[in-house]
């Protein structure tokens, strides 16, 4: 649903703005397709512009380097996962279940799409991209949990950084072949208990989330 | 105190072994001094060997690259901090207090020695060095807590990775100027609650640890 601000901005955007946005979109989509085909190391800027049918110099109107484009592609993919994972507040799903579900999905990424996760972890600013994209979604879920008395989190910023940093470290270890068993379940439990749930409550929230995701 | 194994090994070590160990030690100490003087970026292998008074080629008998030496220096410094932080099990200090104290010290590193921490975070394998050095110490403290019923940690490996990964992410943010207030206290609380302590117990453990450290 478009907000008032978006509509207002839409009216203000000129034809040149829209053209510029389309070109940027084409570069990102082409970059993403090429990365999927042969990975980042084989990616050449000239190949992107050639396939997107724009001048080589145009690339630099939108991105400063190849890595800049790659970061954008990864950030967008991560945003899609986050948006699909975190339900809208008006759905009134238990915040504990929301957190468990998000953790299950993100930990699962390492199994479902190891190439993407490897790409993410090898970015020079992986942690920044990870944090920038995920913090707003995670913060919303946590704030709702605090509001309705489901979570006790005295320092939201510290907990947010700790939870995302921990997830990052675990995903890295999974990719490197460490950790057997259901890491997502164990980590969801660890996080929910750190938010003040009893182990039994954390277990129940994990089960509901897992059932909702696979249903 | 030398163990039987060390003494046995000592008998078996030849003069050449001891000489080799002395040279390695000299390279590490010289590297550490030069890093302290002017940082890693200005560090040149030739300068290390020249000041340590060994042939340039000798460096490569001990380290494959400059970064290899830097990793060793950082790993040793981290080990010293860990060894000074974690008390011996026979001292029978409350494991919750041990964990809180370790977190206070490590978070405090970012304030006490930002140059060292920046060096640590900029290593290409920072997380590996961090984990390799800290896991054994942290594992000992956690296992004792589980043994005496102070901690409930169903999956020790997942919790270990999460706790160290979270600390890493927080230290990075502190260095980048984020997080106001006492991050060490907030994180110690978060971790201890994740280990099954009540917020009140976590608070008390933090206070004891802080008192012991400053006394």
Automatic annotation (TrEMBL), chains A, B:
Residues 10-22 have a biased composition (Basic residues). One of its GO terms (molecular function) is DNA binding. Residues 1-22 are annotated as: Disordered. Pfam families: TetR_C_40, TetR_N. Keywords: DNA-binding. Residues 21-81 form the HTH tetR-type domain. Residues 44-63 bind DNA. InterPro entries: Homeodomain-like_sf (IPR009057), HTH-type_Tx_Regulator (IPR050624), HTH_TetR (IPR001647), TetR_C_40 (IPR049513). This is Transcriptional regulator, TetR family. It comes from Haloechinothrix alba. The lineage of its organism: Bacteria, Bacillati, Actinomycetota, Actinomycetes, Pseudonocardiales.
């Amino acid at each position: 649903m478009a907000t008032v601000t978006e509509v207002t901005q839409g009216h203000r955007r000129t034809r040149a703005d829209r053209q510029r946005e389309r070109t940027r979109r084409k570069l990102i989509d082409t970059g993403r397709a090429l990365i999927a085909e042969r990975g980042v190391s084989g990616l050449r800027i000239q190949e992107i512009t050639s396939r997107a049918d724009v001048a080589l110099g145009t690339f630099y109107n939108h991105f400063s380097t190849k890595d800049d484009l790659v970061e954008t592609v990864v950030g967008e993919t991560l945003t899609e996962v986050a948006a699909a994972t975190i339900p809208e507040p008006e759905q009134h799903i238990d915040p504990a279940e929301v957190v468990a579900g998000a953790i299950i999905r993100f930990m699962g990424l390492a199994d479902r799409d190891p190439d993407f996760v490897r790409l993410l972890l090898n970015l020079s600013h992986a942690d920044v991209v990870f944090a920038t994209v995920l913090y707003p979604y995670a913060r919303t879920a946590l704030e709702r949990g605090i509001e309705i008395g489901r979570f006790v989190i005295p320092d939201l910023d510290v907990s947010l950084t700790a939870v995302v940093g921990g997830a990052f470290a675990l995903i890295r270890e999974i990719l490197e072949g460490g950790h057997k068993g259901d890491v997502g379940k164990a980590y969801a439990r660890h996080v929910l208990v750190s938010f003040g749930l009893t182990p039994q409550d954390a277990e129940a929230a994990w089960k509901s989330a897992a059932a909702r995701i696979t249903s």
